[in-house]
Amino acid sequence: MIQSFVFTTNAVLPVFLIVILGLIFRRLNIITESFNNTASNLVFKAALPAMLFLNVSTADIRQEFDLKLIIFTISMTILIYITVWFAGSFFIKNKQSLGSFVQGAYRSNFALIGVPLTMSILGQEAVAKASIVLAFIVPVLNILAVILLSATGENAESGGFVKTMLNIAKNPLIIACFMGIPFSAFHIKLPLIVSNTFNILSDLATPLALLTIGSSLTIVGIKRTFVMSVAAAFIKTAVLPAIFIPVALLMGFKNTDIGILFVYFAAPTAVSSYIMSRAMKSDSELSANIVLVSTFLSMITCFIGTFILKNAGIIS
Q1: Measured between alpha carbons, how far is 253 from 246 in angstroms, rounded to an integer?
Q2: In the beta sheet, which residues pair with residue 108?
Q3: More confidently predicted of 168 and 142
Q4: What does pTM read for this prediction?
């Protein structure tokens, strides 16, 4: 258990430290507003798509495919998405803030935090199954985000359904995920030079995204979004696992599957939620704060949840 806590701390704390560096660099004028805009654009259109393509294309769909687990994960995600959007609309009147709040509450950082944490808690064998879940859930998460931000972003009033469908079709993250599926299904290997190039490009995604989050933080922004940030982060890291793990147990999921689902629901909000909020003119300041708060809360919830599940003999 100490090992799991140490791993969670080592996985999550550096995320916060890079965000803080972004804040410091902005105060020292090392990062400018112009650089911030360029870096966000680069992450959204190149680095994140490269990372998602590699994650999906290298997963062995045929060997670890579990339809029941995939359907449960997707259906519960959609249920969370609809519920938070509906409930949030009664309390959050600003559309851009509502979009960022909903995205922060449902969108899991399963790729960067969840899969490594799965390996620490459950072992290497569970990672293969978790990667297959990742291959199917990432396109769903991104499609839901495009629909949400198209409806609540700055340009929400124009375009309607057709514009939303175009946004989905043109979204680089969705394109990357769907492009990766045939490579996974048919075991197509990229030439080494191409694979290495994609790896280098994908390595830019996390540090650049985190630095831009940190450089976007302001005292005024933190005060303005504090309540919404904490509420969305608490839903994401504490409420979701507390509700859906008992549901999963009642539906007959056991051991490895429960561990994967727990990590998925308890993981912090995805860094890409900030990048997409910024790209689609939503409340990116709120998104940045939700990522930050949920990252810290997940250290606590992941430790407590793992302790309870292991001591109850639910996961081993």
Answers
A1: 10
A2: 269
A3: 142
A4: 0.83
